[in-house]
Amino acid sequence: MRIHIPFIVICLLVGQTLLAQTAVSFKVAMEREIWHNNIDKQQKKVNQLNNQGKIATDTTVGLQIMDALTRGVDELQMQIEMDSTLKSMEKIKYLRSVDLLLQGYITYLNRRDFSASAAPALIKAFAQCIELDKYQKSFAPVIESNEYGIAKVLVDCLKEYMYTNAGMATSRTILMRKYITLHPEQIMAELAKNPGAYNNADSLIKVALNYDIRKVYDYAQARNALSDRIRNHPDSAVQLVARIAASKSGQLYFPFLDNLMRGKITLGAIDSVKDNELSYFRLLVRTRIEYVERSLPPYNDPANQMQTLTEMMRRKAREYFIREINALHGVPNPAVRFRRLDGLSAQELYYLAVLGEDEIYTSSYVSGVYPRIWQRMANPRADSLIMSVHGDYFRKFIKMAAGYNTLNDFLGRMDKKNQETIMKAFVIGLEKPRKVNDLEDAVDVADSYSSIMDKNKELAAFIVNEVNVSYTKNVQDNNKRGTVIYNLLRILFESADTTKKVNLSELLGIPSIYGKEYKSLTDDSGRVIQQVFFYGDEDKDGQNSYVSFMANFRSKPGWRIDERKSEWTTIMSTKGKPVWIFANKPLYGEDDPDDKAQNHLIQYMQESGLTPTIVIHRGHSYHLATTLHKLPESARIVVLGSCGGYNNLNDVLTACPDAHIISSKQVGTMSVNDPIIGSLNDKLLAGKDIDWISTWRELSKKFATGAAKEKFDDYIPPYKNLGAIFIKAYRKSMGE
User: Fold this and answer.
1) 46 HSE (CA, 13 A, CB side)
2) 587, 662, 667: which is closest to 619 by C-alpha?
3) Please, what sign has the CA dihedral across residues 434, 436, 441, 443?
4) What number is the average pLDDT over the span 137-164?
């Protein structure tokens, strides 16, 4: 009887034989034994990786790889050792290079540009390099003929002991060219290391310009050989970027770079307005509207540096317009308070609102920006306004209108059919990812619903229906992102109806949003550690906020205050459970003393093992970015006291994924912040769990009527912060 052994079994048996063959079977001179042993050690490491399944999942491919790294390397060792034409030091040189070759293979194994299956080609190419080097010939042709991953490992191992080879310099250049062909975004960084490496550097700079203008601009600002090459480049577009980079006003020119390169505007035209804040902002808006129109069908021609343009618009909107009208909130005469808005068109006011969302006061929006939009239009129709900006930021504008109770007025400025069209557009298409702030549109829709449901039940029902339609469509299309987004919106919108008693944390699979257990806020010593960020301001707002905050503890039984430190204050409970509060003092002056004080306090807390679980931001919203940058991962409750827009919520939850966020539709006010913080501390002193629903119910009784109620209503508790809940649930559902 004949026994048939399957071919795969034979391969496996052969493979095991190859794996076992890591020791050379020829006589090795004693002075070179150590180098052969080093190679054998690397082969054993490769075997271990193979046994762990890290080399290849395909058996046939795995056998080919291991044959090259075992038998193939053994043959290399034997050829080197037995070569009578080589002196002992030359043999050592080549053996040490083999060792480095295997180390390089292990290091680069299965990285983006190097496949494990390259082993046979790698060993073959290395043998060719040795043969060429023996006869003092350049091995650059070998580097040229192989893909980048193999060339990278070869050059790395050859440069140590074969650096005298005539092809080494050329090989480095070839390797760099292969790398930047795969990664054009790295052209400028590679040229910066060696700007004289190529004869074709000019063509590479041109490629880099087409790929990422900002990088060329940044490198052109330097004073070195590469920046000289950029400035002397023959291409007019590169010369323009170099000229802008060399100018003191480069940052003001850069937002218009696309039109500058197309010859649609000149530097002189920008010079004529750049020193006038109003005129410059108006030029920014006109350019943004033009760029948006170009990006839409039938043109589909996106502009270069659109994000740079938008960031400059946002900066100018906040710094020159919004902070001015916010600062004058106590001035009763609207003509005086809103004088800075004079001369702005409806479209410019529109962008002022949507780009200033995180800072604009309720009164600045409701009494200033919003009504002036319609006053500046000959025919104040809402659909005409949205069409005039080509739908740009329309979801943001609707969200703000809902939050500030102007949505019914906005919709009332168009006919019924257009109302339905724009609200349908508000809800659909959220599955399409954006390059910047990928979830912002969906979060805006989530944030808007509670306000819409409170003010317009019919519209709320319309939105729910459109969400359900989009959900069904995305399920049918097998679009995971869209299915997740619309399923979350369905659940969130249902929860907004409190009569249905929807348990969001249970349905969404996220930690409870309704409260925090007391023990989750304590450290190993049973203390609740809080950190409060204050900021010194020219208008004394931060200093006054600090005084108001400290009044809650001064001469109050149960608290001990230590203000002996020049940069921060320590507050400790003397009755009840241990609550320790650390607050930097608001310091105004040159060289940003607030920043230094906060950093020194953070360092002290870290060195002392004091881990804050409650973090409070007090101060103008333009200080908020600093607080968020320093937010500790340990924070479980974050009181922003300023707008909870998408960017802020996203930043908090990126640093502290499980944080409960209390935020406001406008900059926080001490008359609301202090009672909220006081209520939290009362519960912490008693060792009680934090229940947001009952806490908010108790607080609402203190702000029952008038201006106090209006200010308190601007604050959003964690269980109603649909934007934050949406971000948490989305990340959970998508496995992020």
Assistant:
1) 35
2) 667
3) positive
4) 95
Residue 709: partners with Cβ closer than 8 Å, 6 or more residues away = 703
Q: Residue 229: name the closest of 214, 251, 245 by CA.
A: 245
Q: Is the dihedral of CA 365, 369, 375, 378 positive or negative?
A: negative
How far is the C-alpha of 54 from the C-alpha of 48, rounded, in Å? 9
- Angle 468-472-476 (CA atoms, 0-180°, nearest 5)? 170
CA nearest neighbour of 40 among 15, 64, 16, 76: 76
- Which residues lie closer than 8 Å to 416 by C-beta, 6 or more apart? none
- What DSSP assignment string belongs to 409-459? HHHTTS-HHHHHHHHHHHHTTTTS--SSSTTHHHHHHHHHHHHHHHH-HHH
**What are the CA-CA distances from residue 181 to residues 171, 191, 211 (Å)?**
15, 13, 12
- Residue 217 sits at the vertex; the CA angle it makes with 212 and 218, to the nearest 5 degrees, is 100
Question: What one-character DSSP code corresponds to residue 184?
Answer: G
φ/ψ (deg, to 5) at 653: -75, -20
Residue 37 CB partners (closer than 8 Å, separation 6+): none
Helix (H) or strand (E) holding 716: strand 715-716
Q: Are 632 and 611 in contact (CB under 8 A)?
A: yes
Where is 613: in which H helix or E strand?
A: none
525 burial (CB, 10 Å; 0-12 / 13-18 / 19+) is: exposed
> Is the torsion defined by CA of 637, 642, 644, 649 positive or negative?
negative
What pairs with residue 690 in β-bridges? 516
Q: In what order do the strands lie in the sheet with 528-533?
A: 559-562, 568-573, 579-584, 528-533, 614-617, 637-643, 660-664, 715-716
The candidate with the shortest Cα–Cα distance to 709, out of 700, 718, 697, 717, is 700
Phi, psi values for residue 685, rounded to 5°: -60, -35
What token pair was written down for 311?
A: 């960031």
Q: What is the CA radius of gyration of the chain?
A: 33
Give the pTM. Answer: 0.76
List the beta strands (DSSP E) in 595-674: 614-617, 637-643, 660-664
Are the C-beta atoms of residues 623 and 565 closer than 8 Å to each other?
A: no
DSSP letter for 186, please: G
Residue 436: pLDDT above 70? Answer: no
pLDDT digits (tens, 9 = 90+) for 596-611: 999 999 999 999 999 9
- The per-residue pLDDT for range 643-689, each reduced to its tens digit, is 667 778 889 999 999 899 998 866 667 788 889 999 999 999 999 99
CA distance 292 to 276: 24
Separation CA 588–CA 617 (nearest Å): 17
Q: Please state at what angle helix 33-51 crosses helix 59-67, rounded to 10 degrees.
A: 170
Phi first, then psi, for residue 264 (nearest 5°) are -85, -10
Q: For residue 720, what are the β-bridge partners?
A: none
Give the 3-state secondary structure of residue 560. strand
Residue 44, token pair as written in the block: 């054993």
Lowest-pLDDT choice from 146-150, 203-207, 614-618: 203-207
440 vs 430: CA distance, rounded Å = 9
Q: What is the mean pLDDT of residues 210-223?
A: 90
Backbone phi and psi for residue 595, each to the nearest 5 degrees, phi listed first: -60, -45
Nearest to 431 by CA among 491, 492, 477: 477
- Write the CA distances from 1 to 4, 10, integer angstroms: 10, 19
